[in-house]
Write a structure and sequence with these properties.
Two copies of one chain form a homodimer.
Chain A lengths: L1 H34 L6 H20 L1 H12 L6 H18 L3 H24 L2 H22 L5 H9 L5 H24 L15 H15 L6 E5 L5 E4 L2 E6 L6 H19 L16 H15 L3 H14 L9 H7 L17 H16 L8 H13 L26 H20 L3 H6 L4 H10 L9 H9 L6 H14 L3
Parallel strand pairs in A: 1-3
Antiparallel strand pairs in A: 2-3
């Protein structure tokens, strides 16, 4: 009997590895589409991606996989703890993939394309009315999707679960409410502070070549393995690939070098997570990132906690000025750090600073939550959007387009429930950061000396190597002694910005 | 009944398109492997490629495909001529894929890896003895492969057929014998001519950036569609991809700019073929290149016939010297053309000039032919190699390594029967070239003015758009009025080199 279970487990992981390999093929095709593909290649690439995604779905949802999962679950005792975790996570993926009727999958896919298509044009024209009818249909279909997944009376929970297993409307509302009461007044104080960044980067030209050369040096010194990864250019920055071949991309603004520098550090944070998963279980959930939120905790940790610190720039500013001597003339390291921590009332999420970023997320979460609870409808979105951004950031968009309710791609693609992960990442990073400090009292000194090996080792030990083995709260408890909460993150924000802005 | 056939035909082409899409996915993965992949990505990429190739094989060889082919063939009358050609070619691919027993496929794959692996080391050490035992096993398995494909008593015919459908040992021996009697003495005369190229490129540095910039301009002016293709750098130059996304690669030697320039024009010739296939049948044999030889006829046409002509450089030499003014100081356009048509007794095929290139091919063909006929054995190869290269080129390799019998990768990978295609390409190009001249008496003037649209249109009309619709001889008859023969090619060589070298 035990050997039957072992055979079933082997077969199950073998099929899952094929499914995973199809995913990694898809990832290469998508990377290439963003980085290299000539315009006329679009149709062929769409066919390639559709075929791979169909084959992957077939592999994961076959009757045989269902049987193997049942066999493995029926005699869990014959498997070790790690293997049981693998079966649990494969079963989770199988369930989500098989619960949705094929007609709904197809209807959603069609409606996502249509909505995405009209979104591009509506955003350009700042015309929400153009977008609303397609978005309404997409929200309806997404409600059906939530029903298909199943939930406890709150359909939005089923959507959040896709990106952040275990998170709920209730837990997120509680965390975000705790954050608002701290962040809104703190941002107000910082914006009104007499301390101001002195430098306007726009005056000088920071060539893309020099920015790239600096970025390449930076990630190598921090510990990104170039033998198993690379850095390229794309319109929308991202990190893709996996162990052995992790691809980072960025874009260069020659009058705002901080965008690419922190963009690169951010994507590198994602990349270090991917480079840190367990090799021996590669291709199974045990070597997959735990959630979007935990992934984001890694990118934010490196970008904001480490990358925007004075210690970090005490180490790297001399190298930055050796590349951009003239362009940064007259700017001290303290000026630079203040400049890259400039806080402002901004309308656009992707350009928001560390402190106000969560406010952009919270308003989106509240809108999605209320939309799927039937409290508001699609036609209310522009009004509610503007009310919330005024309430949280004290600013009103000039229109519904690129600076307003139409700015993000997420809703047009049906990715409802995705936004909260960004703030979950910030919160998790804050909690991990505090524990890292406690475990390594000399961490600041290490950063100042450009020694990142111990920090990376800590993250590998406590986060990266576990993959999807533990739930998010179990991982946080093991790493920090407590489940995810906002306290450490909010203390960090208060300390950092009070000190920088002499509040 | 007719509608049954139509349904079967639709289903058959649908499955074939999936097979073809898997091929194009594999091509992106391989391009990326050569151009971008970091070293540690090799294992994952190997898994991805193996999975895609397995899925493609499954698609093509399913029982259902066999049934559909039978149905379509049984009532050919219900299909149009183009559709019947598609069925014929799909059936050819199906037969070749299904005739080989799975154990032989696996044994060959294993033995190819082993032989390739030892080849790299043996070549480095110039030690044929190291290579021979593995090569012997590979030849044995390849003989079994030829038996599986079936043949008329000459196993090598079954191997040639993979690359050049319809070519036979008899037809190639006849053509190559005709060529030897012309090319060997002609090369001798050219080498002994008092006319010598005056310039040694090695003295100056032609930066890779400038070479690339010039190459990009060149292919764009000639008519390569950059909206549906691109040019990159790789260690081994190649062309891959297809309609909408054709990828060319080259490598840059900063002391020999002619290598990349003609390398780029060569790969562009392949690329123009791929960009010229019929869009409406894309993904079926009707939009696939006819054979390796016809593919090579296109690359050689652009590289040698057009690219190495005085007319071409009358147009482009001013642009070349505007990029490399200092590096080419004192060199006239006539000097340049003579330099890039320098003929010599060379040991290495990939560096051989236009005139002696075929001699390198002919000796390899004769060796393969005699090896598979049992006339010589693997252990005879170094001796036979050296005898033949001495006889045809008047030169003897210093050893069996990079300049001798171990120089090419082909045998180590089991690609027996591939070499003849290179010379078939030269011959076909000569015949097409002559007919193009007859159809367009002002062709030389057009080239001198940098007008390539009519030339490209002629090639599209007579070659590219037909894909695999006609046999090679039928295509040549339609395009030139006669089946493939050496006469036009040999006349071209005699005229060109007699004129250049004042014989």
């Amino acid at each position: 009997m035990a050997s039957d279970i072992r055979d079933s487990y082997q077969e199950l992981t073998k099929v899952f590895k094929q499914y995973s390999t199809l995913g990694s093929i898809s990832s290469v095709l998508q990377w290439d589409m963003q980085v290299n593909m000539p315009p006329k290649g679009a149709e062929k690439r769409a066919n390639e991606l559709a075929l791979v995604s169909g084959l992957a779905h077939e592999r994961l949802t076959s009757k045989r996989v269902g049987e193997l999962i049942e066999t493995c679950k029926s005699a869990n005792g014959a498997l070790g703890e790690a293997e049981r975790a693998n079966v649990r996570e494969i079963s989770r993926d199988y369930d989500r993939a098989t619960k949705v009727p094929q007609e709904l999958v197809e209807a959603l896919s069609r409606q996502r394309s249509l909505t995405h298509d009209v979104w591009g044009r509506a955003r350009e024209k700042a015309d929400f009315g153009m977008f609303a009818p397609e978005l309404e249909k997409l929200v309806e279909l997404t409600k059906q999707l939530a029903e298909a997944y199943g939930h406890d009376g709150t359909p939005y929970n089923a959507l959040i679960d896709e990106y952040e297993a275990g998170a709920t409307v209730a837990s997120l509302t509680k965390m975000f409410d705790e954050m608002k009461v701290v962040t809104v007044p703190l941002a107000e104080k910082v914006i009104n502070s007499k301390v101001k960044a002195k430098f306007a980067f726009e005056k000088n030209r920071f060539t893309a070549e020099k920015q790239k050369a600096f970025g390449e040096t930076l990630i190598e010194k921090i510990g990104f393995d170039k033998q198993g990864g690379r850095l390229d250019t794309s319109i929308h920055p991202f990190c893709s690939g996996g162990l052995g071949d992790v691809r980072l991309t960025t874009r260069y603004n020659e009058h705002a070098p901080q965008q690419a520098i922190f963009g690169i550090i951010h994507e590198m944070g994602h990349g270090l997570y991917e480079q840190g998963v367990a090799k021996e279980t590669y291709g199974t959930p045990l070597s997959e990132a735990l959630s979007y939120g935990i992934h984001e905790s890694q990118s934010r940790m490196w970008e904001n906690y480490i990358g925007r610190s004075l210690e970090f720039w005490k180490c790297f500013y001399p190298q930055l000025t050796s590349v951009f001597g003239n362009e940064l003339a007259g700017m001290s390291v303290e000026d630079w750090v203040l400049a890259v921590n400039h806080v402002e009332r901004s309308l656009v999420r992707v350009e928001a600073d560390e402190l106000t970023y969560d406010l952009h997320i919270i308003l989106r979460f509240e809108i999605e939550r209320d939309l799927f609870a039937g409290v508001i409808s699609v036609s209310d979105l522009p009004k509610v959007w503007n009310q919330k951004i005024e309430a949280y950031l004290g600013i009103t968009p000039p229109n519904d387009g690129k600076e307003g309710v139409l700015q993000d791609v997420h809703w047009s693609g049906g990715s409802f429930g995705y936004f909260p992960s960004y703030s979950v990442g910030n919160i998790a990073a804050g909690q991990l950061w505090k524990k890292m400090h406690a475990d390594m009292p000399t961490m600041s000194a290490k950063i100042e000396k450009g020694e990142f090996a111990d920090i990376l080792a800590w993250l590998r030990e406590h986060v990266h190597r576990h993959g999807r083995r533990y739930s998010r709260d179990d991982l946080m408890k093991m790493a920090t002694g407590k489940p995810l909460g906002t306290q450490d993150y909010l203390s960090y924000l208060e300390e950092k910005f009070s000190s920088l802005y002499q509040l």
